[in-house]
Design brief:
This protein has about 625 residues and is mainly α. It has 22 helices and nine strands. The chain has helices at about 5-20, 35-50, 65-70, 80-95, 125, 130-155, 160-185, 195-205, 215-225, 225-235, 240-245, 285-295, 305-310, 315-335, 360-375, 380-395, 440-455, 460-480, 510-530, 535-560, 565-585, 590-610; strands spanning about 110-115, 185-195, 250-255, 270, 275, 350, 360, 420, 435-440. Strand 4 (about 270) and strand 5 form a beta hairpin. Helix 10 (about 225-235) packs antiparallel against helix 14 (about 315-335) and helix 14 crosses helix 15 (about 360-375). The longest helix has 28 residues, at about 160-185. The two termini are about 50 Å apart.
């Protein structure tokens, strides 16, 4: 693989050390300033990689590698680095806590923008709007923080440091609880008539070229029956949802996460406080925020989180609700995207949402949900190969592997990105303009999905195809790194280095840098796994093992009562080689075959020597 995670991650840490400087005068801001999301993303650049690649951990000063200390030189020596990181975490948690209510703040800040061509600025009230991206990012951050603090605490003896760690962990737990509540109150179900505009788009997406018919509506409803049954368990049914669940009805629906706490969201009481603030977000799912929420929530019930016991009893109760919401949303979108007997809807590019917006960006988002669903049900490699083909097409359509045309509209997905209106935000405050969210990380989004799929397939040829695609995307992303002549050298993102017609950027974006770092972390996990053995190679190695064992047994039988020390040493070594090859057969048949070749060669030398001696 062209991407070498360890070297690249340490290079990013060096760049962060240059840009941000010492902790006492730490520069949090990127090209857009500061907000609760970008600051969390910066911390994730430091905390996430060691979780995926333990070789670069810095929470145990006595085992911190020299190249890690060199990369984080602005933080001091091996003992200083974890202390400084604790300080940064504490500063972040204090900064984004309301001093009056003592509740954590999840404001979108400068990530919220007005529409392209609109010269107005978002109002102060709008900049304080809390968004799902902030909730989900905080879930990932706080679980990483708690795990880091507990690992580091075991290395600390000074009471002052232990007290600080305890305080920071308590604040992180409070923020995690609040973020989980925010996600829970942002989940929504949108029910509509099958002959409405949303119903028409859903029908045409599921069955392209087909007109309206009750049979098609029935097929869609039958495919979504498990999701509809789960809605009852969710316990949020109203009259609209009751109509949907009527077996005689013809209603259709969507479920997932809106951009923030939805209008009419139920009150939730926790030890942190009572969350009953009215939500401004429209009660309709947004594909981007649904994927962001699903990716963040997955960390709550991952094996690492469960085994480490990171969640309190209260958080485990919230996690059970979120897991049900997570499961319903993932089942819904994967079912809709893979409907039909022949070609899946997700294979028809680009994906179109029910509000009649279409983009290749949405196709990548849907593919990530389909991939999760296929992995959960153990889908065959033939289904995964279909996902690979769509990812390859998207890389070409996004001009990642192909040169752009003159005035190519595909470049707009890279910069400035696709702008999504946040319906309901215009009602906050007085004379508030419509505001939205920019989706601009197509390349890193694609790379992350390709690497995750490569770790999922069992066919070596399909895996090699995905690794080749990942290399192409990484080559593209590497060129977009800020150059050495810029203040943010080594960070991301400057699309003009690949597409000269786009405006040049010389300052980093934590939004883009974090997503590339997440790809590096995914690559590290992929490289540490055992590759699936090929059928032909496994068969070949098994044949070699059988022959080696037969020849070895004959040599032992022939020389069991004779032979000198050299012969006995040789047989002992070959026996060790055969036993090791047998252990490697299941996961590394190629390595087993290489060992067996040497074993057979040495055994043949013994036979040849005996024949020469006339034995």
């Amino acid at each position: 693989m062209r991407l070498q995670p360890r070297q690249e991650l340490l290079s990013v840490w060096k760049a962060i050390s240059r840009w941000c400087g010492p902790v006492r005068s730490f520069n949090w801001a990127d090209r857009g300033g500061r907000n609760s999301i970008s600051d969390a993303e910066l911390l994730l650049c430091l905390l996430l990689p060691p979780q995926r690649l333990p070789a670069i951990r810095f929470d145990r000063p006595d085992t911190t590698e020299p190249d890690v200390v060199s990369a984080l030189y602005a933080f001091g020596g091996p003992v200083d680095i974890p202390q400084r990181v604790v300080e940064l975490i504490g500063s972040y948690l204090t900064t984004y806590t309301d001093p009056l209510t003592q509740l954590p703040v999840f404001a979108g800040g400068n990530y919220l923008t007005t529409a392209p061509g609109d010269d107005r600025e978002p109002t102060p009230e709008q900049l304080r709007l809390e968004v799902v991206d902030a909730f989900a990012t905080s879930v990932v951050l706080c679980t990483a923080v708690i795990q880091f603090l507990r690992n580091y605490r075991a290395q600390v003896q000074r009471r002052a440091y232990l007290d600080e760690i305890a305080r920071v962990e308590a604040d992180a737990q409070r923020r995690l609880t609040a973020a989980m509540v925010g996600l829970q109150r942002s989940f929504t179900i949108s029910v509509f008539d099958s002959d409405s505009s949303q119903g028409r788009v859903l029908r045409e997406t599921s069955f392209p070229g087909s007109g309206f018919s009750g049979d098609l509506v029935g097929r869609i409803r039958r495919s979504l029956r498990p999701v509809m049954a789960g809605l009852r368990e969710l316990g949020t049914c109203d009259d609209q949802v009751d109509d949907l669940l009527d077996d005689r009805g013809d209603k259709l629906f969507e479920c997932g996460w809106s951009w923030g706490v939805v209008q009419g969201a139920a009150e939730v009481k926790t030890s942190v406080g009572t969350f009953n603030q009215p939500g401004p977000a429209e009660p309709a799912p947004y594909l981007y925020f649904t994927v962001v929420a699903i990716d963040g929530i997955r960390d709550l019930f991952s094996q690492e989180t469960r085994l480490a016991g990171l969640l309190t009893d209260e958080q485990q109760s919230l996690a059970r609700v979120l897991q049900l919401q997570w499961d319903l949303a993932q089942r819904y979108w994967s079912a809709v995207a893979t409907l039909g007997d022949q070609r899946w809807p997700v294979e028809e590019l680009p994906w179109r949402t029910t509000d009649e917006e279409e983009s290749d960006y949405y196709s990548v988002l849907v593919l990530s949900l389909v991939r999760h669903a296929l992995a959960d049900r153990g889908a065959p490699d033939s289904d995964l190969a279909r996902i690979t083909s769509v990812l390859s097409d998207l890389a070409d359509r996004g001009r990642i592997r192909r040169r752009p045309l003159a005035d190519d509209p595909a470049l707009l997905m890279h910069q400035p990105g696709r702008w999504v209106t946040l319906v309901g935000a215009e009602q906050v405050g007085t004379e508030s303009p419509p505001i939205g969210w920019r989706l601009g990380e197509l390349s890193s989004l694609l790379l992350g999905r390709v690497l995750a799929l490569a770790a999922q397939v069992n066919d070596p040829q399909e895996e090699a195809r995905l690794v080749g695609l990942a290399d192409d995307i990484w080559r593209h992303l590497h060129r977009r790194r800020l150059g050495d002549d810029t203040p943010g050298a080594g960070l991301w993102d400057d699309p003009s280095s690949v597409y000269p017609t786009l405006p040049r950027r010389d300052k980093p974006s934590w939004y883009h840098t974090t997503r590339v770092v997440q790809c590096m972390s995914t690559a590290a996990e992929y490289l540490q796994r055992d590759s699936p053995p090929g059928t032909l190679l496994s068969g070949y190695a098994a044949d070699l093992l059988g022959e080696a064992e037969r020849v070895f047994d004959k040599e032992q039988l022939r020389n069991s009562s004779g032979g000198g020390p050299a012969l006995r040493d040789s047989l002992t070594k070959q026996g060790i080689g055969i036993r090791r090859a047998r252990r490697l057969m299941a996961t590394r048949p190629g390595s087993a075959a290489a060992i067996l070749h040497n074993v057979l060669r040495e055994l043949d030398k013994l036979a040849a020597a005996r024949e020469a001696a006339g034995d």
